[in-house]
Backbone:
């Protein structure tokens, strides 16, 4: 019996099928019959070759989901994992929206990032209309940093942890960032944002924080992440 050449050569054209020793006779005998596996090979190839603009990330997850808190006409798309991770945070936000004088977000970051990535994220969030507690502007000269951090944590709806190489070093050294992190973990209201490092590196330093699903700049730009946070905390 002649062997079909679809697995190695494909049958995407009539000429390709006609040149196959196994299928050419079937095409002649059954009025142009095309074997069913032709479409399956084509669809597999298409699925592996890429996805739509709203679909792909470097990790291969598809960004096509829209969470219940997305407003009509929003152009922001999420992976299904992101929606699952952020849904309980959104529920807590909704419970606290009516509470007066709360900041939308407490930004936890390493001291070394205060003029770099943390400042960039703060500016992107504020541009999107998010009120942010940020130590660079909210701790007055001469004030107790720890006391002001405690106040900021208590007066914010959600905590964001900007996880960078500097942050990991600070947590290992049990500095200020470690104290903020401990408080945020106790409240169970935080979103990790991994930037210029990996979740594997985070889990080595803080398995508890590393177990939380969050957002990563390896998957999308910081500006897109800020847009998701803004949508998450919107009234």
Residues:
């Amino acid at each position: 019996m002649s062997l079909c050449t679809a697995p190695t050569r494909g049958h995407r054209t009539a000429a390709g099928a006609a040149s196959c020793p196994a299928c050419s006779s079937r095409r002649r005998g059954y009025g142009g019959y095309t074997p069913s596996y032709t479409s399956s090979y084509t669809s597999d190839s298409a699925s592996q070759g890429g996805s739509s603009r709203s679909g792909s990330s470097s990790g291969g997850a598809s960004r096509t989901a829209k969470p219940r808190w997305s407003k009509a006409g929003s152009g922001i798309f999420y992976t299904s994992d992101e929606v699952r991770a952020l849904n309980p945070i959104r529920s807590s936000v909704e419970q606290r929206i009516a509470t007066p004088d709360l900041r939308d977000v407490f930004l936890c970051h390493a001291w070394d990032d205060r003029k770099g990535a943390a400042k960039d994220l703060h500016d992107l969030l504020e541009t999107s209309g998010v009120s942010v507690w940020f130590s660079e502007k909210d701790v007055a000269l001469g004030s107790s940093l720890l006391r002001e951090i405690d106040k900021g944590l208590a007066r914010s709806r959600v905590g964001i942890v900007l996880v960078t190489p500097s942050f990991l070093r600070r947590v290992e050294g049990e500095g200020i960032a470690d104290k903020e992190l401990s408080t945020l973990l106790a409240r169970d209201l935080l979103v990790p944002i991994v930037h210029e490092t990996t979740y594997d590196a985070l889990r080595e330093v803080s398995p508890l924080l590393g177990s939380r699903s969050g957002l990563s700049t390896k998957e999308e730009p910081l500006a897109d992440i800020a847009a998701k946070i803004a949508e998450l905390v919107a009234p």
